[in-house]
Amino acid sequence: xxxxxxxxxxxxxxxxxxxxxxxxxxxxxxxxxxxxxxxxxxxxxxxxxxxxxxxxxxxxxxxxxxxxxxxxxxxxxxxxxxxxxxxxxxxxxxxxxxxxxxxxxxxxxxxxxxxxxxxxxxxxxxxxxxxxxxxxxxxxxxxxxxxxxxxxxxxxxxxxxxxxxxxxxxxxxxxxxxxxxxxxxxxxxxxxxxxxxxxxxxxxxxxxxxxxxxxxxxxxxxxxxxxxxxxxxxxxxxxxxxxxxxxxxxxxxxxxxxxxxxxxxxxxxxxxxxxxxxxxxxxxxxxxxxxxxxxxxxx
Amino acid sequence: xxxxxxxxxxxxxxxxxxxxxxxxxxxxxxxxxxxxxxxxxxxxxxxxxxxxxxxxxxxxxxxxxxxxxxxxxxxxxxxxxxxxxxxxxxxxxxxxxxxxxxxxxxxxxxxxxxxxxxxxxxxxx
Lengths: 299, 125
Fold this sequence. Notes:
The complex is a heterodimer of chains A (299) and B (125).
Chain A: H1 8-27, H2 34-64, H3 68-111, E1 116-125, E2 134-136, E3 149-151, E4 156-163, E5 168-172, E6 180-184, E7 190-194, H4 197-201, E8 205-210, E9 221-224, E10 236-245, E11 252-258, E12 267-273, H5 279-298
Antiparallel strand pairs in A: 1-2, 1-12, 2-5, 3-4, 3-12, 4-5, 6-7, 6-9, 7-8, 8-11, 9-10, 10-11
Chain B: H1 2-24, H2 40-50, H3 53-71, H4 77-95, H5 101-122
Helix pairs in contact in B: 1-2, 1-3, 2-3, 2-4, 2-5, 3-4, 4-5
Protein backbone atom coordinates (compact mmCIF):
# COMPACT_ATOMS: atom_id res chain seq x y z
CA UNK A 1 0.00 0.00 0.00
CA UNK A 2 3.04 2.23 0.31
CA UNK A 3 3.46 4.71 -2.51
CA UNK A 4 -0.17 4.52 -3.57
CA UNK A 5 -0.42 8.27 -3.92
CA UNK A 6 2.62 8.32 -6.20
CA UNK A 7 1.45 5.48 -8.42
CA UNK A 8 0.30 5.92 -12.00
CA UNK A 9 -3.09 4.49 -11.09
CA UNK A 10 -3.71 7.14 -8.47
CA UNK A 11 -2.65 9.93 -10.84
CA UNK A 12 -4.99 8.50 -13.43
CA UNK A 13 -7.78 8.37 -10.84
CA UNK A 14 -7.25 12.06 -10.04
CA UNK A 15 -7.32 12.85 -13.74
CA UNK A 16 -10.54 10.81 -14.19
CA UNK A 17 -12.15 12.59 -11.25
CA UNK A 18 -11.19 15.94 -12.71
CA UNK A 19 -12.54 15.03 -16.15
CA UNK A 20 -15.76 13.68 -14.62
CA UNK A 21 -16.17 16.82 -12.57
CA UNK A 22 -15.82 18.90 -15.72
CA UNK A 23 -18.36 16.62 -17.40
CA UNK A 24 -20.75 17.15 -14.50
CA UNK A 25 -20.44 20.90 -14.85
CA UNK A 26 -20.81 20.73 -18.61
CA UNK A 27 -23.88 18.49 -18.55
CA UNK A 28 -25.69 19.95 -15.56
CA UNK A 29 -27.68 22.33 -17.79
CA UNK A 30 -27.86 20.26 -20.93
CA UNK A 31 -30.85 18.02 -21.56
CA UNK A 32 -29.09 15.60 -23.92
CA UNK A 33 -25.33 15.96 -23.97
CA UNK A 34 -23.17 14.21 -26.54
CA UNK A 35 -22.00 11.58 -24.04
CA UNK A 36 -25.60 10.74 -23.17
CA UNK A 37 -26.40 10.42 -26.86
CA UNK A 38 -23.48 8.03 -27.23
CA UNK A 39 -24.69 5.87 -24.34
CA UNK A 40 -28.20 6.06 -25.73
CA UNK A 41 -26.96 4.89 -29.11
CA UNK A 42 -25.42 1.85 -27.41
CA UNK A 43 -28.12 0.94 -24.94
CA UNK A 44 -31.46 2.03 -26.41
CA UNK A 45 -31.78 -0.81 -28.98
CA UNK A 46 -30.93 -3.34 -26.29
CA UNK A 47 -33.43 -1.75 -23.91
CA UNK A 48 -36.11 -1.85 -26.59
CA UNK A 49 -35.60 -5.57 -27.14
CA UNK A 50 -35.46 -6.21 -23.41
CA UNK A 51 -38.68 -4.26 -22.80
CA UNK A 52 -40.44 -6.04 -25.64
CA UNK A 53 -39.39 -9.44 -24.29
CA UNK A 54 -40.45 -8.48 -20.79
CA UNK A 55 -43.84 -7.25 -21.94
CA UNK A 56 -44.45 -10.41 -23.98
CA UNK A 57 -43.36 -12.58 -21.10
CA UNK A 58 -45.61 -10.66 -18.68
CA UNK A 59 -48.57 -11.04 -21.05
CA UNK A 60 -47.90 -14.78 -21.41
CA UNK A 61 -47.58 -15.26 -17.66
CA UNK A 62 -50.79 -13.29 -17.06
CA UNK A 63 -52.80 -15.29 -19.58
CA UNK A 64 -51.29 -18.60 -18.43
CA UNK A 65 -52.27 -17.84 -14.85
CA UNK A 66 -55.96 -17.41 -15.70
CA UNK A 67 -58.53 -20.18 -15.88
CA UNK A 68 -60.40 -21.06 -19.07
CA UNK A 69 -63.68 -19.75 -17.64
CA UNK A 70 -62.22 -16.40 -16.71
CA UNK A 71 -60.63 -16.08 -20.15
CA UNK A 72 -63.97 -16.87 -21.81
CA UNK A 73 -65.71 -14.32 -19.57
CA UNK A 74 -63.00 -11.75 -20.32
CA UNK A 75 -63.31 -12.44 -24.03
CA UNK A 76 -67.08 -12.04 -23.88
CA UNK A 77 -66.73 -8.80 -21.96
CA UNK A 78 -64.24 -7.46 -24.48
CA UNK A 79 -66.55 -8.39 -27.36
CA UNK A 80 -69.43 -6.55 -25.72
CA UNK A 81 -67.18 -3.58 -25.11
CA UNK A 82 -66.07 -3.72 -28.73
CA UNK A 83 -69.68 -3.78 -29.96
CA UNK A 84 -70.54 -0.86 -27.75
CA UNK A 85 -67.57 1.12 -29.01
CA UNK A 86 -68.55 0.36 -32.61
CA UNK A 87 -72.03 1.71 -31.93
CA UNK A 88 -70.52 4.80 -30.40
CA UNK A 89 -68.28 5.18 -33.42
CA UNK A 90 -71.27 4.99 -35.75
CA UNK A 91 -73.03 7.62 -33.64
CA UNK A 92 -69.90 9.71 -33.69
CA UNK A 93 -69.75 9.68 -37.49
CA UNK A 94 -73.48 10.42 -37.69
CA UNK A 95 -73.14 13.38 -35.36
CA UNK A 96 -70.05 14.56 -37.19
CA UNK A 97 -71.87 14.58 -40.54
CA UNK A 98 -74.95 16.13 -38.99
CA UNK A 99 -72.85 18.79 -37.33
CA UNK A 100 -71.11 19.68 -40.59
CA UNK A 101 -74.45 19.75 -42.39
CA UNK A 102 -76.11 21.90 -39.75
CA UNK A 103 -73.22 24.33 -39.76
CA UNK A 104 -73.70 24.86 -43.49
CA UNK A 105 -77.44 25.18 -43.07
CA UNK A 106 -76.93 27.63 -40.25
CA UNK A 107 -74.93 29.84 -42.59
CA UNK A 108 -77.77 29.66 -45.13
CA UNK A 109 -80.30 30.37 -42.41
CA UNK A 110 -78.29 33.36 -41.18
CA UNK A 111 -78.23 34.76 -44.68
CA UNK A 112 -81.99 34.20 -45.05
CA UNK A 113 -83.66 34.93 -41.73
CA UNK A 114 -87.15 34.23 -43.12
CA UNK A 115 -86.32 30.58 -43.90
CA UNK A 116 -87.78 27.84 -41.78
CA UNK A 117 -85.58 24.91 -42.74
CA UNK A 118 -85.90 21.21 -41.95
CA UNK A 119 -82.79 19.10 -42.27
CA UNK A 120 -83.27 15.78 -44.06
CA UNK A 121 -81.21 12.86 -45.29
CA UNK A 122 -81.69 11.03 -48.56
CA UNK A 123 -82.87 7.55 -47.59
CA UNK A 124 -83.94 6.15 -50.93
CA UNK A 125 -83.14 6.67 -54.57
CA UNK A 126 -84.73 4.88 -57.48
CA UNK A 127 -81.90 3.79 -59.78
CA UNK A 128 -84.21 3.51 -62.78
CA UNK A 129 -85.37 7.12 -62.47
CA UNK A 130 -83.51 9.20 -65.03
CA UNK A 131 -84.23 12.44 -63.28
CA UNK A 132 -82.71 11.51 -59.91
CA UNK A 133 -85.93 11.49 -57.90
CA UNK A 134 -85.28 10.46 -54.31
CA UNK A 135 -86.90 9.94 -50.91
CA UNK A 136 -86.00 11.88 -47.77
CA UNK A 137 -86.54 10.95 -44.13
CA UNK A 138 -88.81 13.90 -43.27
CA UNK A 139 -92.55 14.11 -43.78
CA UNK A 140 -95.57 15.96 -42.47
CA UNK A 141 -94.48 15.24 -38.89
CA UNK A 142 -91.36 17.30 -39.60
CA UNK A 143 -93.45 20.10 -41.08
CA UNK A 144 -92.80 19.22 -44.71
CA UNK A 145 -95.57 19.76 -47.24
CA UNK A 146 -95.99 19.34 -50.98
CA UNK A 147 -94.23 21.94 -53.19
CA UNK A 148 -91.69 22.84 -50.50
CA UNK A 149 -88.35 23.67 -52.08
CA UNK A 150 -85.45 21.33 -51.37
CA UNK A 151 -81.97 22.84 -51.31
CA UNK A 152 -78.44 22.34 -50.06
CA UNK A 153 -75.92 24.96 -49.09
CA UNK A 154 -74.71 24.85 -52.72
CA UNK A 155 -78.08 25.54 -54.34
CA UNK A 156 -81.46 24.24 -55.47
CA UNK A 157 -82.04 20.47 -55.56
CA UNK A 158 -85.75 20.23 -56.35
CA UNK A 159 -89.15 20.25 -54.67
CA UNK A 160 -91.31 17.96 -52.57
CA UNK A 161 -93.73 16.22 -54.92
CA UNK A 162 -95.33 13.78 -52.48
CA UNK A 163 -95.38 13.67 -48.74
CA UNK A 164 -96.36 11.17 -46.07
CA UNK A 165 -96.06 11.36 -42.30
CA UNK A 166 -92.45 10.20 -42.10
CA UNK A 167 -90.97 10.52 -45.57
CA UNK A 168 -91.28 12.61 -48.71
CA UNK A 169 -90.56 12.21 -52.39
CA UNK A 170 -88.41 14.87 -53.98
CA UNK A 171 -88.55 15.69 -57.67
CA UNK A 172 -85.25 17.16 -58.74
CA UNK A 173 -84.51 20.10 -60.98
CA UNK A 174 -83.52 17.61 -63.69
CA UNK A 175 -87.14 16.48 -64.01
CA UNK A 176 -89.28 17.90 -66.87
CA UNK A 177 -91.95 18.53 -64.22
CA UNK A 178 -89.76 21.20 -62.63
CA UNK A 179 -90.04 24.76 -63.88
CA UNK A 180 -88.23 27.49 -62.02
CA UNK A 181 -88.38 31.17 -62.74
CA UNK A 182 -84.72 32.18 -62.80
CA UNK A 183 -82.54 35.19 -63.42
CA UNK A 184 -78.99 35.67 -64.66
CA UNK A 185 -77.20 37.32 -61.76
CA UNK A 186 -74.88 39.20 -64.10
CA UNK A 187 -77.13 40.46 -66.92
CA UNK A 188 -80.44 40.42 -64.96
CA UNK A 189 -82.10 38.55 -67.86
CA UNK A 190 -84.88 36.22 -66.83
CA UNK A 191 -85.93 32.83 -68.13
CA UNK A 192 -87.43 29.55 -67.12
CA UNK A 193 -85.24 26.74 -65.88
CA UNK A 194 -86.43 23.41 -67.19
CA UNK A 195 -85.15 20.11 -68.40
CA UNK A 196 -85.93 17.20 -70.66
CA UNK A 197 -84.73 13.65 -70.95
CA UNK A 198 -81.68 14.56 -73.03
CA UNK A 199 -80.46 17.37 -70.79
CA UNK A 200 -81.21 15.29 -67.69
CA UNK A 201 -79.12 12.49 -69.11
CA UNK A 202 -76.27 14.95 -69.62
CA UNK A 203 -76.87 16.30 -66.09
CA UNK A 204 -77.59 19.81 -67.38
CA UNK A 205 -80.55 22.23 -67.34
CA UNK A 206 -82.03 24.66 -69.80
CA UNK A 207 -82.57 28.35 -69.15
CA UNK A 208 -85.30 28.83 -71.74
CA UNK A 209 -86.96 31.76 -73.50
CA UNK A 210 -83.92 34.01 -73.82
CA UNK A 211 -84.26 36.75 -76.41
CA UNK A 212 -82.26 36.71 -79.63
CA UNK A 213 -80.08 39.59 -78.47
CA UNK A 214 -79.31 37.93 -75.13
CA UNK A 215 -76.20 38.99 -73.24
CA UNK A 216 -76.05 35.81 -71.19
CA UNK A 217 -72.62 34.25 -71.58
CA UNK A 218 -70.86 31.15 -70.40
CA UNK A 219 -69.92 31.30 -66.69
CA UNK A 220 -72.87 33.47 -65.60
CA UNK A 221 -74.53 32.42 -62.38
CA UNK A 222 -78.23 31.63 -62.56
CA UNK A 223 -80.36 32.10 -59.43
CA UNK A 224 -84.03 31.82 -58.58
CA UNK A 225 -85.92 35.11 -58.81
CA UNK A 226 -88.67 34.21 -56.33
CA UNK A 227 -91.56 34.78 -58.73
CA UNK A 228 -94.18 32.09 -58.37
CA UNK A 229 -93.78 31.66 -54.64
CA UNK A 230 -92.37 28.12 -54.87
CA UNK A 231 -88.70 28.94 -54.47
CA UNK A 232 -87.24 31.78 -52.43
CA UNK A 233 -85.23 34.28 -54.41
CA UNK A 234 -81.46 34.22 -54.84
CA UNK A 235 -80.95 30.46 -54.48
CA UNK A 236 -78.23 29.34 -56.85
CA UNK A 237 -79.41 27.04 -59.62
CA UNK A 238 -76.19 26.69 -61.61
CA UNK A 239 -73.76 28.28 -64.01
CA UNK A 240 -74.21 28.86 -67.72
CA UNK A 241 -72.29 26.39 -69.86
CA UNK A 242 -73.23 27.55 -73.37
CA UNK A 243 -75.93 29.36 -75.39
CA UNK A 244 -77.88 27.40 -77.99
CA UNK A 245 -80.72 28.05 -80.41
CA UNK A 246 -84.07 26.47 -79.68
CA UNK A 247 -85.22 23.87 -82.17
CA UNK A 248 -88.90 24.68 -81.73
CA UNK A 249 -88.99 28.50 -81.84
CA UNK A 250 -86.82 31.56 -82.51
CA UNK A 251 -85.67 32.00 -78.91
CA UNK A 252 -82.35 30.96 -77.47
CA UNK A 253 -81.66 28.89 -74.42
CA UNK A 254 -78.69 28.52 -72.15
CA UNK A 255 -77.27 25.19 -71.08
CA UNK A 256 -76.84 25.39 -67.32
CA UNK A 257 -74.70 23.12 -65.16
CA UNK A 258 -76.55 22.59 -61.85
CA UNK A 259 -74.78 23.83 -58.72
CA UNK A 260 -75.76 20.63 -56.92
CA UNK A 261 -75.03 17.11 -58.10
CA UNK A 262 -78.64 16.08 -57.55
CA UNK A 263 -78.05 12.47 -58.56
CA UNK A 264 -75.60 11.98 -55.70
CA UNK A 265 -76.75 14.40 -53.02
CA UNK A 266 -77.02 12.82 -49.54
CA UNK A 267 -78.13 15.57 -47.17
CA UNK A 268 -80.65 18.25 -48.03
CA UNK A 269 -82.72 20.96 -46.42
CA UNK A 270 -86.43 21.45 -46.98
CA UNK A 271 -87.51 25.07 -46.68
CA UNK A 272 -90.95 24.71 -45.14
CA UNK A 273 -91.58 28.41 -44.92
CA UNK A 274 -90.11 31.60 -46.36
CA UNK A 275 -91.22 35.15 -47.09
CA UNK A 276 -93.52 35.18 -50.12
CA UNK A 277 -94.17 31.44 -50.16
CA UNK A 278 -97.24 30.48 -52.18
CA UNK A 279 -98.21 34.08 -52.97
CA UNK A 280 -98.63 33.45 -56.68
CA UNK A 281 -100.65 30.30 -56.07
CA UNK A 282 -102.90 32.07 -53.57
CA UNK A 283 -103.36 34.92 -56.01
CA UNK A 284 -104.18 32.48 -58.77
CA UNK A 285 -106.58 30.58 -56.56
CA UNK A 286 -108.13 33.86 -55.34
CA UNK A 287 -108.73 35.13 -58.86
CA UNK A 288 -110.23 31.78 -59.84
CA UNK A 289 -112.60 31.73 -56.86
CA UNK A 290 -113.62 35.40 -57.33
CA UNK A 291 -114.32 34.83 -60.99
CA UNK A 292 -116.35 31.71 -60.18
CA UNK A 293 -118.18 33.64 -57.45
CA UNK A 294 -118.96 36.48 -59.83
CA UNK A 295 -120.11 34.03 -62.43
CA UNK A 296 -122.27 32.30 -59.82
CA UNK A 297 -123.57 35.68 -58.72
CA UNK A 298 -124.32 36.54 -62.32
CA UNK A 299 -126.55 33.57 -62.69
CA UNK B 1 -2.18 -14.04 -21.74
CA UNK B 2 -2.73 -10.51 -23.04
CA UNK B 3 -5.39 -11.80 -25.44
CA UNK B 4 -7.11 -13.64 -22.62
CA UNK B 5 -7.14 -10.42 -20.57
CA UNK B 6 -8.69 -8.45 -23.44
CA UNK B 7 -11.40 -11.08 -23.90
CA UNK B 8 -12.10 -10.98 -20.15
CA UNK B 9 -12.42 -7.20 -20.14
CA UNK B 10 -14.67 -7.35 -23.16
CA UNK B 11 -16.85 -9.90 -21.33
CA UNK B 12 -16.95 -7.62 -18.27
CA UNK B 13 -18.05 -4.69 -20.43
CA UNK B 14 -20.81 -6.75 -22.04
CA UNK B 15 -21.90 -8.02 -18.63
CA UNK B 16 -22.13 -4.50 -17.23
CA UNK B 17 -24.05 -3.34 -20.30
CA UNK B 18 -26.51 -6.25 -20.09
CA UNK B 19 -27.04 -5.73 -16.37
CA UNK B 20 -27.68 -2.04 -17.01
CA UNK B 21 -30.27 -2.90 -19.65
CA UNK B 22 -31.94 -5.38 -17.31
CA UNK B 23 -32.09 -2.93 -14.41
CA UNK B 24 -33.58 -0.27 -16.69
CA UNK B 25 -36.25 -2.55 -18.19
CA UNK B 26 -39.60 -1.60 -16.67
CA UNK B 27 -41.44 -4.43 -14.95
CA UNK B 28 -38.65 -6.97 -15.25
CA UNK B 29 -37.24 -6.82 -11.73
CA UNK B 30 -39.83 -6.44 -9.00
CA UNK B 31 -39.41 -3.45 -6.72
CA UNK B 32 -39.54 -3.56 -2.95
CA UNK B 33 -41.61 -0.56 -1.97
CA UNK B 34 -39.81 2.34 -3.64
CA UNK B 35 -36.49 0.45 -3.78
CA UNK B 36 -35.23 -1.14 -6.95
CA UNK B 37 -31.95 -2.96 -7.47
CA UNK B 38 -29.04 -1.29 -9.22
CA UNK B 39 -27.30 -4.35 -10.60
CA UNK B 40 -24.39 -2.42 -12.08
CA UNK B 41 -22.95 -1.42 -8.67
CA UNK B 42 -22.26 -4.94 -7.30
CA UNK B 43 -21.10 -6.01 -10.76
CA UNK B 44 -18.40 -3.33 -11.03
CA UNK B 45 -17.39 -3.90 -7.41
CA UNK B 46 -17.05 -7.63 -8.06
CA UNK B 47 -14.96 -6.89 -11.13
CA UNK B 48 -12.81 -4.51 -9.07
CA UNK B 49 -12.08 -7.26 -6.55
CA UNK B 50 -10.38 -9.37 -9.20
CA UNK B 51 -8.68 -6.72 -11.29
CA UNK B 52 -5.79 -4.32 -10.77
CA UNK B 53 -6.49 -0.66 -9.94
CA UNK B 54 -6.56 0.91 -13.39
CA UNK B 55 -8.94 -1.61 -15.09
CA UNK B 56 -11.05 -1.63 -11.93
CA UNK B 57 -11.30 2.15 -12.03
CA UNK B 58 -12.20 2.14 -15.73
CA UNK B 59 -14.98 -0.44 -15.24
CA UNK B 60 -16.24 1.58 -12.28
CA UNK B 61 -16.25 4.62 -14.53
CA UNK B 62 -18.19 2.76 -17.22
CA UNK B 63 -20.76 1.49 -14.71
CA UNK B 64 -21.09 4.92 -13.11
CA UNK B 65 -21.60 6.68 -16.43
CA UNK B 66 -24.24 4.14 -17.41
CA UNK B 67 -26.12 4.76 -14.15
CA UNK B 68 -25.87 8.51 -14.76
CA UNK B 69 -27.25 8.00 -18.25
CA UNK B 70 -30.11 5.90 -16.86
CA UNK B 71 -31.04 8.65 -14.41
CA UNK B 72 -30.80 11.32 -17.13
CA UNK B 73 -29.55 14.87 -16.90
CA UNK B 74 -26.14 15.45 -15.34
CA UNK B 75 -23.42 12.92 -16.26
CA UNK B 76 -20.41 12.12 -14.08
CA UNK B 77 -21.68 11.90 -10.51
CA UNK B 78 -21.84 8.11 -10.33
CA UNK B 79 -18.85 7.98 -12.65
CA UNK B 80 -16.65 9.74 -10.06
CA UNK B 81 -18.04 7.71 -7.15
CA UNK B 82 -17.72 4.30 -8.74
CA UNK B 83 -14.36 5.02 -10.37
CA UNK B 84 -12.94 6.03 -6.96
CA UNK B 85 -14.71 3.19 -5.14
CA UNK B 86 -13.55 0.54 -7.59
CA UNK B 87 -10.00 1.89 -7.41
CA UNK B 88 -10.16 1.63 -3.61
CA UNK B 89 -11.77 -1.83 -3.63
CA UNK B 90 -9.12 -3.10 -6.02
CA UNK B 91 -6.37 -1.80 -3.75
CA UNK B 92 -7.98 -3.28 -0.63
CA UNK B 93 -8.64 -6.61 -2.31
CA UNK B 94 -5.06 -6.82 -3.52
CA UNK B 95 -3.39 -5.87 -0.24
CA UNK B 96 -5.72 -6.22 2.76
CA UNK B 97 -8.67 -8.48 2.18
CA UNK B 98 -9.60 -11.90 0.91
CA UNK B 99 -11.86 -12.00 -2.09
CA UNK B 100 -14.90 -14.14 -1.42
CA UNK B 101 -18.69 -13.86 -1.55
CA UNK B 102 -18.95 -12.48 1.98
CA UNK B 103 -16.42 -9.69 1.49
CA UNK B 104 -18.03 -8.84 -1.85
CA UNK B 105 -21.41 -8.55 -0.11
CA UNK B 106 -19.98 -6.42 2.67
CA UNK B 107 -18.23 -4.07 0.26
CA UNK B 108 -21.40 -3.74 -1.81
CA UNK B 109 -23.50 -2.92 1.28
CA UNK B 110 -20.99 -0.36 2.54
CA UNK B 111 -20.64 1.30 -0.84
CA UNK B 112 -24.39 1.45 -1.53
CA UNK B 113 -24.78 2.87 1.99
CA UNK B 114 -22.34 5.61 1.04
CA UNK B 115 -23.68 6.24 -2.45
CA UNK B 116 -27.33 6.59 -1.44
CA UNK B 117 -26.95 9.69 0.81
CA UNK B 118 -24.56 11.31 -1.64
CA UNK B 119 -27.04 10.70 -4.42
CA UNK B 120 -29.74 12.41 -2.37
CA UNK B 121 -27.46 15.44 -2.17
CA UNK B 122 -26.68 15.42 -5.90
CA UNK B 123 -30.27 14.77 -7.06
CA UNK B 124 -32.56 16.40 -4.48
CA UNK B 125 -36.20 15.29 -4.86
